[in-house]
């Protein structure tokens, strides 16, 4: 962790001199927590991937930060168990509690909390020096290169922008050679310009780290851009947890009822038409492709696409002449009434790829839609997350 804290608000049974390791049950994070804080209760059980970015998403007060504090040992659950890639950090039934400073994790808060009297190098060495040389998995130069701060090493924190300070804080956390990285709304205090500055570096961490990253956010665009797995919290409960593409396409969740309801698709650059500035993207697992107006990108490059439900219209036959670039064969999987009762939400299957469409109830009745019906999805707009 970037800072050394003790668990707050609970009597501590320390395992300071004990090596706590359980059998290598399975890879990933397996957590169950019951925390009671006044009128608020966090009660959840999660099984999360052992690498990649898991987004913890929910409105203010849903329990996102409390969950991270339990993972870090900053809050001690009344009942709970935590196993990280086979190592047991918490097991209240057996009296096991690994204190925060013994947990191999990195924690980055909304504010960078750099030491103002140390240079960037000094701040980074604080993280590095907390790990025995034989246990170090990341060196200072690698962390600086990953976060794009090599040119800032001799600067003082007061001379850094907000985005630069956060990148230094993340690098410092990485230099503790963590088994898990916790990011608690690291972009919340930044303006839009600084957010756009730091997002590419967070994407690099996503691509290059082999440890799980838990990313707390209430910003859908950050979640869409970074996450592989999504946990949706509401009032201290996990109402959904799963791969982001599948979870966003679920019509039984509040996200599908939002005005900007959308799905995420992982495509691959398949070609470019310079005369029209059109990028062709191969959809996963099938022969279908999408075309989008964009500058050229390297063929074979994986890309994330966002398609909003409001940008997908439906037709019973393929239009012979249309300005819509992408018309895809689809099958109706599910239909539910939208928040506005004059509209319906339709979940589609496009050769294995989920898609959402928001249409009027009149169109639903006019097209005589039903589960299993084959039709054509006209995708009016596609957003690339670059």
Automatic annotation (TrEMBL):
The keyword Transport applies. Transmembrane segments: none annotated. The keyword ATP-binding applies. GO terms for molecular function: ABC-type transporter activity; ATP binding; ATP hydrolysis activity; molybdate ion transmembrane transporter activity. It comes from the Bacteria. GO terms for cellular component: membrane. InterPro entries: AAA+_ATPase, ABC_transporter-like_ATP-bd, ABC_transporter-like_CS, Mo/tungstate-bd_C_term_dom, ModC_ABC_ATP-bd, Molybdenum_import_ModC, Mop_domain, P-loop_NTPase. Keywords: ATP-binding, Cell inner membrane, Cell membrane, Hydrolase, Membrane, Molybdenum, Nucleotide-binding, Translocase, Transport. Residues 321-386 form the Mop domain. PROSITE patterns: ABC_TRANSPORTER_1, ABC_TRANSPORTER_2, MOP. Residues 24-260 form the ABC transporter domain. Its EC number is 3.6.3.29. This is Molybdenum ABC transporter ATP-binding protein. The gene is modC.
């Amino acid at each position: 962790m970037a800072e050394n804290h003790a668990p707050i608000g609970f009597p501590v049974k320390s395992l300071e001199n004990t090596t706590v390791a359980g059998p290598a049950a399975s890879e990933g994070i397996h957590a169950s927590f019951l925390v009671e804080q006044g009128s608020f209760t966090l009660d959840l059980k999660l099984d999360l991937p052992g690498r990649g970015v898991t987004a913890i998403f929910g409105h203010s007060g849903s329990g996102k930060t409390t969950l991270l504090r339990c993972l870090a040992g900053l809050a001690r659950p009344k009942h709970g168990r935590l196993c990280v890639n086979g190592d047991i950090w918490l097991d209240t039934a057996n009296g096991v509690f690994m204190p925060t400073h013994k947990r191999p994790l990195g924690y980055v808060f909304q504010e960078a909390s750099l030491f103002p009297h140390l240079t960037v190098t000094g701040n980074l060495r604080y993280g590095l020096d907390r790990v025995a040389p034989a246990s170090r998995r990341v060196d200072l130069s690698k962390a600086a290169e990953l976060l794009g701060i090599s040119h800032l090493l001799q600067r003082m924190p007061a001379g850094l922008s907000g985005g630069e300070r956060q990148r230094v804080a993340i690098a410092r956390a990485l230099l503790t050679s963590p088994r898990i990285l916790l990011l608690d709304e690291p972009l919340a205090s930044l303006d839009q310009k600084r957010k756009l500055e730091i997002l590419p570096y967070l994407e690099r961490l996503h691509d290059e780290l082999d440890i799980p990253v838990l990313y707390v956010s209430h910003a859908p665009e950050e979640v869409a851009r970074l996450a592989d797995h999504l946990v949706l919290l509401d009032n201290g409960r996990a109402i959904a947890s799963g791969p982001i593409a599948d979870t966003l396409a679920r019509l039984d969740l509040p996200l599908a009822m939002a005005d900007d309801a959308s799905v995420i698709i992982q495509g691959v650059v398949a070609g470019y038409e310079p005369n029209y500035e059109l990028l062709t993207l191969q959809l996963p697992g099938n022969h279908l492709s999408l075309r989008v107006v964009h500058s050229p990108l390297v063929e074979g490059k994986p890309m994330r696409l966002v398609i909003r439900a409001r940008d997908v219209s439906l037709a019973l036959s393929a239009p012979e002449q249309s300005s819509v670039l992408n018309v895809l064969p689809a099958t109706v999987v599910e239909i539910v009434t939208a928040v506005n009762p004059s509209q319906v939400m339709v979940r589609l299957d496009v050769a294995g790829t989920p898609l959402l469409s928001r249409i009027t109830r009149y169109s639903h009745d006019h097209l005589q839609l039903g589960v299993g019906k084959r039709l054509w999805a006209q995708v009016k707009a596609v957003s690339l997350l670059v």
